[in-house]
């Protein structure tokens, strides 16, 4: 299809003018001139580039800048940075050029947005290194992360033009890292869209099914909401309050999670939406008026006392303020009984902070609210944890620590003097001690909660008042890392024990070097260190040396490593693999060498390539012929084949996307696979016999294991079977579902 350059030029100008119109209310002095300058530089730098969709590349930075202004609420500095965010990475323009034209602040932001280039030691993750670099900018300018989220959102919105394996990698990374980050920064609208788009590409069938069902029952849902809110609106009108009230459906991703976690079909999920009341009142009346609206709602509908959540009196640490209650509606339509409905009550200011998060927080920064205090407290904790992070910790470990702290719920506890301390749910008395002060944590021997003595591992509950007990003789140990939950406490404990560990690390390295010489290896090279690390499952080289130095691994064990290494090398030689497969690039090159006449030589054909490449089927998800799969290059176990919906795939694709290779089943494959099925239903005499008869006699499928239990008239069985492919599996499941008494048959994840 021919490209109409003039039409594209007009479209670029149209998008640029829309950006200026959206930004106009807050532009000052020569802001418009600076934005124009950034736009022209970006347009010139990207003029020969096109996206995978075929569109001019400049559409992307313009779209990212538009999201920054329109959906996050950022200003001129962010617009300029968004327009230029790919210039240094993709063109000849340097950071020095950016600093000369726009100053050090914008140059610093773009540096934070520019991916790290170069080679990486095998076993590390380029994605994790880039994520760490971006996270560390929290210490300088949070706008780096906000622009990155806008960049990721636009990439997700336009992901359909990418290759399938690229879609899977980017979508998994988005769900694993970027959606939790948006959640923690209070960007609810962006977090929800990232999750839904992520699901669209990682579980397309499930996404489509839920989306269709939501569309089908939209009219019934709207009718129910209108009926539910009618008496509430009447009472609010009598008070002459300025308000908006409407029902908001749950996101597709949250519905999917509920179906999966509670094993409940879509038709049985009743809380598919929440009703939100947003009132427009002055700051000084916010709290009182929210509680007055709560009183009106509970006058009309009976509340569930255990489901009241008061984030108006005590906001979440990301600044979220709202009053949530769950009430029982009256029967309506085809419902013979009422249903539970969540009602959210908040002010216009709270709603803006809930949807736009950090940017809205800065808008209201001048107001002395608990939101500002909570957000500043959380931000300082994240900065502190990042700044004190152990430099020897791998990027993957840091990303995991930060990721684990992003999605947590919170627990509100108090010091003996009544000071509020907010920690993540699951925090222990030891976490609390380190939150008070590093030295208090290091000397902690126990605590009193409500005057009662508790151990360091005691998990805290809302409202606990904690007194920490210390001793000058106490010192942190590695066992403490299993007790604490917070990133801050983990970082502090690692700092305290690092000095003590140094002597063990030095001793261990010396021991290994000496023994290797006896075994015929002249020196401890980086390659041997990495092999030993993988063999003993050590996190890094220092961890390996420490475990030998401390005596956790006997030095005599090295002879077993040597013999296993030699055996592995013999097997590799027998398979005639000349090039070691260490990444996707090397894999592609090697496959093309051994299969030069095949068009799809960069794809691993499962079933045909077994004699050429060392690969196995992953035990965590048991892929079978017909499943969508990918290959993952491990450090010392060759290639593992995983299903794309394997429970481990988001982590593998997010942390080590560069080690993922394309894989598909050979068309004429003749293999058998073990599949685990879970069968649930209502118990009756002869049920087990009927199930096994269908499997063995009618379908001629071999059963390798069978375990069925019965409780309170219900049965649940786990059966392991030898299956040929997904079509065979679908036929088997269909037959089993027709057995009287069987309610559900599912492949065990």
TrEMBL record:
Residues 676-749 form the ACT domain. Residues 409-470 form the TGS domain. It comes from the Bacteria. Belongs to the relA/spoT family. PANTHER family: GTP PYROPHOSPHOKINASE (PTHR21262:SF31), GUANOSINE-3',5'-BIS DIPHOSPHATE 3'-PYROPHOSPHOHYDROLASE (PTHR21262). In eubacteria ppGpp (guanosine 3'-diphosphate 5'-diphosphate) is a mediator of the stringent response that coordinates a variety of cellular activities in response to changes in nutritional abundance. NCBIfam families: spoT_relA (TIGR00691). This is RelA/SpoT family protein. The lineage of its organism: Bacteria, Pseudomonadati, Bacteroidota, Cytophagia, Cytophagales.
């Amino acid at each position: 299809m021919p490209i109409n350059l003039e039409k594209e030029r007009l479209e670029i100008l149209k998008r640029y003018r829309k950006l200026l119109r959206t930004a106009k209310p807050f532009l000052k002095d020569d802001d418009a001139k600076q934005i124009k300058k950034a736009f022209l530089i970006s347009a010139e730098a990207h003029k020969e580039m096109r996206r995978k969709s075929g569109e001019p590349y400049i559409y992307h930075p313009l779209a990212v800048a538009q999201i920054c202004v329109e959906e996050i609420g950022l200003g001129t500095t962010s617009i300029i940075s968004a327009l230029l965010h790919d210039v240094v990475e993709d063109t000849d323009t340097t950071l020095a050029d950016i600093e000369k034209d726009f100053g050090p602040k914008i140059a610093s932001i773009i540096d934070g947005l520019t991916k790290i280039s170069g080679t990486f030691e095998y076993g590390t993750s380029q994605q994790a290194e880039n994520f760490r670099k971006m996270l560390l900018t929290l210490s300088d300018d949070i706008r780096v992360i906000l622009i990155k989220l806008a960049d990721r959102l636009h990439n997700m919105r336009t992901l359909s033009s990418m290759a399938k394996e690229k879609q899977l990698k980017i979508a998994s990374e988005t769900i694993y890292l970027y959606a939790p980050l948006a959640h923690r920064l209070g960007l609810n609208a962006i977090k929800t869209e990232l999750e839904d788009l992520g699901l669209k590409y990682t579980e397309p069938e499930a996404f489509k099914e839920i989306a269709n069902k939501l569309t089908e029952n939209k009219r019934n849902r709207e009718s129910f909401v209108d009926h539910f809110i009618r008496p509430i609106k009447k009472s609010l009108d009598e008070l002459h309050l300025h308000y908006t009230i409407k029902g908001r459906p749950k996101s597709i991703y949250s519905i999917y999670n509920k179906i999966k976690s509670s094993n409940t079909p879509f038709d049985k999920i009743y809380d598919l939406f929440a009703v939100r009341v947003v009132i427009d009142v002055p700051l000084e009346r916010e709290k009182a008026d929210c509680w007055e609206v709560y009183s009106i709602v509970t006058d009309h509908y009976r509340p569930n006392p255990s489901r009241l959540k008061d984030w108006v009196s005590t906001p979440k640490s990301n600044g979220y303020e709202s009053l949530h209650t769950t009430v029982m509606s009256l029967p309506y339509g085809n419902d013979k009984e009422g249903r539970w409905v969540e009602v959210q009550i908040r002010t216009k200011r709270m709603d803006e902070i809930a949807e736009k998060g950090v940017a809205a927080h800065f808008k209201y920064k001048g107001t002395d609210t608990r939101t500002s205090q909570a957000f500043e407290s959380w931000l300082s904790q994240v900065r502190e944890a990042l700044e004190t992070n152990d430099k020897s910790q791998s990027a993957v470990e840091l990303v995991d620590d930060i990721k684990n702290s992003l999605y947590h719920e919170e627990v509100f506890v108090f010091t003996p003097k009544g000071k509020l301390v907010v920690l993540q749910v699951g925090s222990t008395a030891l976490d609390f001690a380190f939150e008070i002060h590093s030295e208090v944590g290091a000397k902690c021997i126990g605590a009193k909660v409500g005057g009662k003595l508790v151990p360091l591992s005691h998990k805290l509950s809302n409202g606990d008042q904690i007194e920490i007990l210390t001793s000058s003789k106490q010192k942190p140990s590695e066992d403490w890392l299993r007790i604490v939950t917070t990133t801050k406490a983990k970082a502090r404990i690692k700092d305290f024990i690092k000095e003590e560990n140094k002597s063990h690390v030095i001793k261990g390295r010396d021991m290994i070097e000496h023994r290797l010489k006896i075994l015929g290896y002249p020196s401890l090279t980086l390659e041997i260190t990495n092999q030993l690390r993988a063999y003993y499952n050590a996190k890094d080289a220092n961890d390996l040396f420490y475990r030998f130095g401390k005596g956790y691994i006997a030095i005599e064990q090295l002879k077993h490593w040597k013999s296993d290494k030699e055996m592995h090398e013999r097997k590799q030689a027998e398979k005639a693999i000349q090039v070691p497969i260490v990444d996707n690039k090397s894999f592609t090159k090697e496959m093309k060498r051994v299969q030069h006449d095949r068009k799809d030589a960069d794809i691993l054909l499962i079933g045909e390539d077994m004699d050429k490449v060392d690969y196995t089927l992953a035990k965590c998800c048991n892929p079978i012929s017909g499943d969508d799969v990918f290959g993952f290059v491990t450090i010392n176990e060759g290639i593992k084949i995983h299903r794309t919906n394997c429970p481990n795939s988001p982590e593998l694709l997010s942390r080590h996307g560069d080690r993922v290779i394309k894989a598909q089943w050979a068309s004429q494959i003749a293999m058998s696979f073990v599949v685990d099925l879970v069968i649930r239903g209502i118990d009756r005499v002869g049920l087990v016999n009927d199930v096994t008869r269908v499997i063995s006699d009618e379908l001629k499928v071999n059963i390798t294991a069978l375990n069925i239990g019965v409780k309170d008239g219900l049965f649940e069985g786990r059966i392991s079977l030898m299956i040929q492919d997904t079509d065979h599996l679908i036929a088997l499941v269909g037959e089993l579902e027709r057995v009287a008494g069987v309610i559900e048959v599912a492949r065990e994840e």
